[in-house]
Specification:
Layout: E1 6-11, H1 14-25, E2 38-41, E3 51-54, H2 56-60, H3 69-75, E4 80-83, H4 86-100, E5 107-111, E6 114-118, H5 123-126, H6 129-144, E7 148-153, H7 156-163, E8 171-173, H8 179-182, H9 196-204, H10 210-214, H11 218-236
Parallel strand pairs: 2-4, 7-8
Antiparallel strand pairs: 1-6, 1-7, 2-3, 5-6
Helix pairs in contact: 4-6
Length: 248
Protein backbone atom coordinates (compact mmCIF):
# COMPACT_ATOMS: atom_id res chain seq x y z
CA UNK A 1 0.00 0.00 0.00
CA UNK A 2 1.37 3.40 -0.98
CA UNK A 3 2.13 5.92 1.76
CA UNK A 4 -0.37 8.75 1.60
CA UNK A 5 0.93 12.10 0.38
CA UNK A 6 -1.03 15.09 1.67
CA UNK A 7 -0.37 18.75 0.88
CA UNK A 8 -1.62 21.69 2.92
CA UNK A 9 -1.50 24.95 0.96
CA UNK A 10 -1.80 28.22 2.88
CA UNK A 11 -1.84 31.68 1.28
CA UNK A 12 0.69 33.99 2.94
CA UNK A 13 -1.13 36.92 4.63
CA UNK A 14 -4.05 36.25 2.30
CA UNK A 15 -6.24 39.34 2.59
CA UNK A 16 -3.24 41.68 2.58
CA UNK A 17 -1.60 39.84 -0.34
CA UNK A 18 -4.80 39.94 -2.37
CA UNK A 19 -5.21 43.66 -1.64
CA UNK A 20 -1.60 44.30 -2.64
CA UNK A 21 -1.91 42.47 -5.97
CA UNK A 22 -5.19 44.24 -6.79
CA UNK A 23 -3.80 47.67 -5.98
CA UNK A 24 -0.63 47.09 -8.00
CA UNK A 25 -2.19 45.46 -11.06
CA UNK A 26 -5.64 47.08 -11.28
CA UNK A 27 -5.32 50.42 -9.51
CA UNK A 28 -1.70 50.83 -10.71
CA UNK A 29 -0.46 51.94 -7.30
CA UNK A 30 3.31 51.96 -6.89
CA UNK A 31 3.62 50.80 -3.28
CA UNK A 32 3.32 47.08 -2.52
CA UNK A 33 1.47 46.75 0.81
CA UNK A 34 3.46 43.59 1.53
CA UNK A 35 6.71 45.57 1.74
CA UNK A 36 5.59 48.19 4.31
CA UNK A 37 3.89 48.10 7.73
CA UNK A 38 0.33 47.54 6.51
CA UNK A 39 -2.83 45.73 7.53
CA UNK A 40 -6.38 44.98 6.46
CA UNK A 41 -8.90 45.95 9.11
CA UNK A 42 -12.25 47.47 10.04
CA UNK A 43 -13.51 51.03 9.85
CA UNK A 44 -10.93 53.28 11.50
CA UNK A 45 -13.11 56.41 11.25
CA UNK A 46 -15.72 54.72 13.42
CA UNK A 47 -12.94 53.60 15.77
CA UNK A 48 -13.93 49.98 15.59
CA UNK A 49 -12.89 46.74 14.00
CA UNK A 50 -9.99 44.33 14.23
CA UNK A 51 -6.88 43.48 12.26
CA UNK A 52 -7.74 40.77 9.71
CA UNK A 53 -4.30 40.43 8.09
CA UNK A 54 -0.94 42.15 8.40
CA UNK A 55 2.33 42.41 6.51
CA UNK A 56 5.60 40.92 7.77
CA UNK A 57 6.80 44.47 8.48
CA UNK A 58 3.74 45.14 10.66
CA UNK A 59 4.31 41.83 12.46
CA UNK A 60 7.80 43.02 13.44
CA UNK A 61 6.14 45.90 15.32
CA UNK A 62 4.04 43.38 17.23
CA UNK A 63 0.82 43.86 15.25
CA UNK A 64 -1.31 40.73 15.59
CA UNK A 65 -4.28 39.37 13.67
CA UNK A 66 -7.43 39.66 15.76
CA UNK A 67 -6.38 42.63 17.87
CA UNK A 68 -8.20 45.96 17.73
CA UNK A 69 -7.15 48.68 15.31
CA UNK A 70 -6.45 50.95 18.30
CA UNK A 71 -4.03 48.41 19.76
CA UNK A 72 -2.28 48.02 16.41
CA UNK A 73 -1.96 51.81 16.04
CA UNK A 74 -0.33 52.10 19.45
CA UNK A 75 2.30 49.56 18.43
CA UNK A 76 2.81 50.92 14.90
CA UNK A 77 1.69 54.57 14.45
CA UNK A 78 2.76 54.58 10.76
CA UNK A 79 0.61 51.52 9.95
CA UNK A 80 -1.11 51.74 6.54
CA UNK A 81 -4.63 50.42 7.07
CA UNK A 82 -6.96 49.39 4.23
CA UNK A 83 -10.60 48.25 4.48
CA UNK A 84 -11.63 44.68 3.73
CA UNK A 85 -12.96 43.81 0.26
CA UNK A 86 -14.60 40.40 0.59
CA UNK A 87 -15.72 40.11 -3.03
CA UNK A 88 -12.08 40.49 -4.09
CA UNK A 89 -11.01 37.84 -1.60
CA UNK A 90 -13.65 35.35 -2.80
CA UNK A 91 -12.50 35.86 -6.40
CA UNK A 92 -8.85 35.25 -5.49
CA UNK A 93 -9.75 32.23 -3.38
CA UNK A 94 -11.60 30.65 -6.28
CA UNK A 95 -8.67 31.26 -8.66
CA UNK A 96 -6.33 29.67 -6.11
CA UNK A 97 -8.58 26.61 -5.69
CA UNK A 98 -8.96 26.21 -9.47
CA UNK A 99 -5.19 25.88 -9.87
CA UNK A 100 -5.02 23.23 -7.13
CA UNK A 101 -7.67 21.15 -8.91
CA UNK A 102 -5.36 20.91 -11.93
CA UNK A 103 -3.06 18.73 -9.81
CA UNK A 104 -5.46 16.51 -7.85
CA UNK A 105 -9.14 15.56 -7.96
CA UNK A 106 -9.13 15.50 -4.17
CA UNK A 107 -8.97 19.10 -2.94
CA UNK A 108 -10.57 20.14 0.35
CA UNK A 109 -11.24 23.85 0.84
CA UNK A 110 -10.37 24.25 4.51
CA UNK A 111 -10.96 28.00 4.64
CA UNK A 112 -10.98 30.93 2.21
CA UNK A 113 -7.15 30.84 2.04
CA UNK A 114 -6.28 27.23 2.90
CA UNK A 115 -6.74 23.85 1.26
CA UNK A 116 -5.70 20.23 1.60
CA UNK A 117 -4.79 18.10 -1.41
CA UNK A 118 -4.46 14.32 -1.55
CA UNK A 119 -1.44 13.84 -3.85
CA UNK A 120 -1.11 10.08 -3.28
CA UNK A 121 -0.05 8.37 -6.50
CA UNK A 122 0.48 11.63 -8.38
CA UNK A 123 4.27 11.17 -8.63
CA UNK A 124 4.11 9.75 -12.16
CA UNK A 125 2.37 12.92 -13.36
CA UNK A 126 4.05 15.69 -11.37
CA UNK A 127 7.24 14.25 -9.90
CA UNK A 128 8.15 13.52 -6.29
CA UNK A 129 6.22 15.51 -3.65
CA UNK A 130 8.68 18.36 -3.04
CA UNK A 131 9.08 18.96 -6.77
CA UNK A 132 5.30 18.93 -7.29
CA UNK A 133 4.82 21.33 -4.37
CA UNK A 134 7.31 23.79 -5.85
CA UNK A 135 5.55 23.55 -9.22
CA UNK A 136 2.17 24.42 -7.65
CA UNK A 137 3.61 27.15 -5.41
CA UNK A 138 5.49 28.82 -8.25
CA UNK A 139 2.54 28.65 -10.63
CA UNK A 140 0.27 30.40 -8.09
CA UNK A 141 2.90 33.10 -7.59
CA UNK A 142 3.52 33.59 -11.34
CA UNK A 143 -0.11 33.49 -12.48
CA UNK A 144 -1.95 35.09 -9.56
CA UNK A 145 0.75 37.29 -8.07
CA UNK A 146 0.64 36.10 -4.45
CA UNK A 147 2.65 33.52 -2.53
CA UNK A 148 1.73 30.39 -0.60
CA UNK A 149 3.37 27.94 1.76
CA UNK A 150 3.04 24.22 1.10
CA UNK A 151 3.30 21.64 3.86
CA UNK A 152 3.82 17.99 2.89
CA UNK A 153 3.24 14.87 4.97
CA UNK A 154 1.41 11.55 5.09
CA UNK A 155 -1.55 13.03 6.99
CA UNK A 156 -3.49 16.28 7.17
CA UNK A 157 -2.41 17.34 10.65
CA UNK A 158 1.32 17.11 9.98
CA UNK A 159 0.93 18.75 6.56
CA UNK A 160 -0.79 21.72 8.21
CA UNK A 161 1.90 21.93 10.88
CA UNK A 162 4.57 21.90 8.14
CA UNK A 163 2.97 24.71 6.14
CA UNK A 164 3.21 26.92 9.23
CA UNK A 165 7.01 26.65 9.42
CA UNK A 166 9.16 29.46 7.98
CA UNK A 167 7.23 31.85 5.70
CA UNK A 168 6.61 33.15 3.07
CA UNK A 169 6.83 31.30 -0.28
CA UNK A 170 8.22 28.06 1.17
CA UNK A 171 7.79 24.29 0.89
CA UNK A 172 8.29 22.19 4.04
CA UNK A 173 8.01 18.47 4.76
CA UNK A 174 7.00 16.90 8.07
CA UNK A 175 6.79 13.15 7.60
CA UNK A 176 6.47 10.91 10.70
CA UNK A 177 10.21 10.15 10.70
CA UNK A 178 10.92 13.92 10.85
CA UNK A 179 8.73 14.68 13.87
CA UNK A 180 11.44 14.26 16.51
CA UNK A 181 13.79 16.67 14.75
CA UNK A 182 11.37 19.26 13.36
CA UNK A 183 8.35 19.29 15.69
CA UNK A 184 9.22 17.94 19.12
CA UNK A 185 11.62 20.77 20.08
CA UNK A 186 8.90 23.41 19.50
CA UNK A 187 6.94 25.00 22.40
CA UNK A 188 3.76 23.06 23.15
CA UNK A 189 1.76 26.19 22.29
CA UNK A 190 2.89 25.81 18.66
CA UNK A 191 0.85 22.61 18.38
CA UNK A 192 -2.33 23.26 16.42
CA UNK A 193 -5.50 23.38 18.56
CA UNK A 194 -3.54 23.98 21.78
CA UNK A 195 -4.64 27.34 23.20
CA UNK A 196 -3.29 29.47 26.04
CA UNK A 197 -5.42 27.88 28.74
CA UNK A 198 -4.32 24.39 27.69
CA UNK A 199 -0.67 25.52 27.62
CA UNK A 200 -1.04 26.74 31.21
CA UNK A 201 -2.50 23.40 32.34
CA UNK A 202 0.23 21.45 30.55
CA UNK A 203 2.94 23.59 32.17
CA UNK A 204 1.57 22.60 35.59
CA UNK A 205 2.32 19.01 34.52
CA UNK A 206 5.85 20.05 33.54
CA UNK A 207 5.11 19.83 29.82
CA UNK A 208 6.62 22.72 27.86
CA UNK A 209 7.57 21.26 24.47
CA UNK A 210 5.70 19.17 21.93
CA UNK A 211 8.21 16.36 22.52
CA UNK A 212 7.50 16.34 26.26
CA UNK A 213 3.80 16.10 25.45
CA UNK A 214 4.38 13.24 23.01
CA UNK A 215 6.40 11.26 25.57
CA UNK A 216 4.03 11.91 28.48
CA UNK A 217 1.53 9.45 29.93
CA UNK A 218 -1.62 9.54 27.77
CA UNK A 219 -3.73 8.34 30.74
CA UNK A 220 -2.68 11.36 32.84
CA UNK A 221 -3.50 13.68 29.95
CA UNK A 222 -6.95 12.09 29.58
CA UNK A 223 -7.58 12.50 33.28
CA UNK A 224 -6.48 16.16 33.26
CA UNK A 225 -7.83 17.36 29.90
CA UNK A 226 -10.50 14.74 29.10
CA UNK A 227 -10.88 13.99 25.39
CA UNK A 228 -8.68 16.93 24.36
CA UNK A 229 -5.79 15.35 26.26
CA UNK A 230 -6.04 12.22 24.13
CA UNK A 231 -6.35 14.26 20.91
CA UNK A 232 -3.30 16.45 21.49
CA UNK A 233 -1.22 13.44 22.59
CA UNK A 234 -2.07 11.83 19.24
CA UNK A 235 -1.22 15.04 17.35
CA UNK A 236 2.11 15.40 19.20
CA UNK A 237 2.93 11.89 18.02
CA UNK A 238 1.87 12.66 14.44
CA UNK A 239 -1.24 10.45 14.57
CA UNK A 240 -4.16 11.58 12.38
CA UNK A 241 -6.47 9.38 10.32
CA UNK A 242 -8.75 12.07 8.84
CA UNK A 243 -9.40 12.11 5.11
CA UNK A 244 -9.31 14.89 2.52
CA UNK A 245 -12.99 15.71 1.94
CA UNK A 246 -13.74 17.16 -1.50
CA UNK A 247 -17.33 18.00 -0.48
CA UNK A 248 -17.87 20.40 2.43
Amino acid sequence: MKERVIFHIDVNSAFLSWEAVYRLNTLHETTDLRTIPAAVGGDEKKRRGIILAKSMSAKKFGVRTGESILEARRKCPMLTLVPANYELYKKNSQAFMDILKDYSPDVEKYSIDEAFMDMTGMGALFGEPVKAAHTIKDRIRDELGFTVNVGISSNKYLAKMASDFEKPDRVHTLFPEEIKEKMWPLPVGDLLFVGKSTVARLEVLGIRTIGELALSDAAILRKTLKKQGESIWNFANGIDFSFVHTEP
